[in-house]
Design brief:
The chain has about 130 residues and is an all-alpha fold. Helix 1 packs antiparallel against helix 2 and helix 2 crosses helix 4. The longest helix is centred in the first third of the chain and has 26 residues. The chain is globular and about 40 Å long. The termini are close together.
């Protein structure tokens, strides 16, 4: 499988999983505390993990994530934007809640994606046709 199509299918599957968690599981099914906590941070964790894959799929012409320095900068900029998004939730107009756990989940997701992409995906799979 080509790397670009792998990233495409990963992003689409991950987005569907995030939608299922946000719109089907959390509002209608009540979980006990460990599962409730994990389902609360799962969209941030998965969303942050999928950012480099989505960038490779959609912006491959403009951003070369095969270069480790550009991948590192991309992940750093994405993390800054995720923090700004979380801080903007402090404004009461949006009706959302600020949570440090979401920031930690975003950091864990981006860190995991960086190591997966830099050590495995963008180095080894890019050599295959």
């Amino acid at each position: 499988m080509m790397l670009r199509s792998f990233c495409k299918y990963s992003v689409i599957t991950g987005t569907i999983i995030i939608w299922i968690i946000k719109f089907a599981l959390r509002p209608y099914i009540h979980f006990t505390q460990p599962a409730k906590y994990l389902l609360g941070i799962a969209p941030n964790l998965l969303g942050a993990f999928l950012l480099p894959l989505g960038c490779y799929w959609l912006l491959n012409k403009y951003i070369n994530l095969h270069v480790d320095k550009q991948l590192r900068w991309f992940c750093a900029v994405c993390f800054c934007l995720l923090i700004i998004n979380e801080v903007l939730q402090l404004i009461p107009i949006f009706g959302r809640t600020f949570d440090y756990n979401d920031i930690a989940a975003s950091a864990a997701g981006l860190t995991g994606a960086y190591f997966l992409c830099s050590k495995y995906l963008f180095k080894k799979l890019a050599t295959y046709p």
